[in-house]
Write a structure and sequence with these properties.
Elements lengths: L2 H23 L5 H24 L9 H17 L5 H20 L7 H21 L1 H4 L11 E2 L2 E2 L3 H24 L1 H11 L1 H6 L4 H27 L9 H14 L4 H17 L6 H16 L18 H16 L2
Helix pairs in contact: 1-7, 2-7, 2-10, 2-11, 2-12, 3-4, 3-5, 3-10, 4-10, 7-8, 8-10, 11-12
Length: 334
């Protein structure tokens, strides 16, 4: 086993231990820290999804606040009106939101950059209004009250128990994302980001892949919406606004574009700052904005670029012998 592989295993083990111990470590700091921890993990799922779309495929979206609301309502309506189990409503919320994302992503075939951002921002404005007006289904401003899930007669009522459910979903998402990005489809996403013309000339179906990545990103965001709805136990049209879409975008910029660890790091940092500064009222948004500006100025590649300096690899003895031999042979030549 090489030193690099051993180091990666040690890092992974440390991350796993920290993740498993985190809900118990924050207990002495009160229920607010447990709430912030759970919410941070839910937003990690949103940030990883958005980074797949923006960081890895180059499409800017300001509609992810609407996607998380779609997931909220789908899961709540399935469990309350149709009496479906949460464990079925959870993946169904991802499927339905993924279909919605595919339909929203169709304009992405012809739009890009700022035009696509404006188009998706309109979606963020439309969904809360639709939820408010369609009161026969969504109960309007009175909202819906989905219950906490039950796992083999055990209600996930505590923040610590619910934390491990969110952690399991996030771990599964990261595993899927890593394998997706290594696949032919993932490489097509990144080729489109680098150059649509070059990707198309290489045989990549640009329109299909742009709509597909929109659908995958929206689907995982809908999953986060389902987790949020059953965690808060209340769903209303005011849960997420277009301002939250900007916050999700800030998470991946601060953490690091095209980086899964950066998405997670940015979501935890930005959500923690946002929650802790909420007591400052209207000054909260100023503080969050100042942190974003400082983070972008000091770390243009995101917080994920803050890594320990790597030790310079020394050439192996066999390589040194070959190099010295070549130098001696070249010196003998007149």
């Amino acid at each position: 086993m090489t030193n690099a592989r051993r180091l990666r295993m040690v890092r992974s083990l440390v991350v796993i231990l920290i993740a498993l111990a985190a809900p118990f470590a924050v207990i002495p700091f009160g229920s607010q820290m447990s709430y912030i921890l759970d919410m941070s993990l839910i937003f990690c799922i949103v940030a990883v999804s958005l980074n797949l779309l923006t960081g890895f495929s180059g499409q800017v979206s300001l509609g992810h606040a609407a996607f998380i609301m779609v997931g909220e309502y789908v899961s709540s309506l399935l469990t309350l009106d149709l009496n479906w189990s949460f464990w079925i409503a959870l993946p169904m919320s991802a499927v339905v939101t993924g279909i919605v994302g595919f339909l929203i992503g169709l304009p992405a075939v012809r739009l890009s950059g700022n035009f696509l951002a404006v188009a998706t921002m309109g979606f963020s404005f439309a969904i809360p209004e639709l939820a408010l007006k369609w009161s026969n289904l969504t109960n309007g401003s009175s909202g819906l009250m989905p219950a906490r899930p039950v796992f083999f007669s055990f209600v996930l009522g505590s923040d610590q128990a619910y934390y491990f459910l969110i952690l399991a979903c996030l771990s599964a998402q990261v595993l899927v994302m890593k394998n997706l990005l290594r696949s032919r489809t993932g490489r097509a996403f990144q080729a489109i980001r680098d150059s649509e013309i070059a990707a198309q000339s290489s045989g990549v179906r640009v329109g299909y892949h742009k709509a597909l990545v929109f659908s995958i990103s929206a689907g995982f965001t809908g999953l986060a919406g389902s987790l949020y709805a059953h965690y808060i136990n209340f769903v209303s049209p005011n849960d997420f606004t277009v301002q939250d879409s900007f916050l999700f975008l800030a998470m991946i910029v601060v953490g690091g574009l095209a980086s899964i660890p950066g998405s997670i790091l940015g979501a935890i940092v930005m959500n923690t700052i946002n929650q802790l500064s909420s007591s400052f009222g209207q000054y909260s948004i100023i503080l969050v904005g100042a942190v974003m500006v400082l983070a972008v100025l000091l770390f243009p590649k995101g917080l994920v670029s803050l890594r320990l300096p790597r030790r310079r690899n020394t050439p192996r003895s066999s390589e040194r012998i070959v190099r010295v031999t070549r130098e001696v042979e070249s010196a003998d030549v007149p």
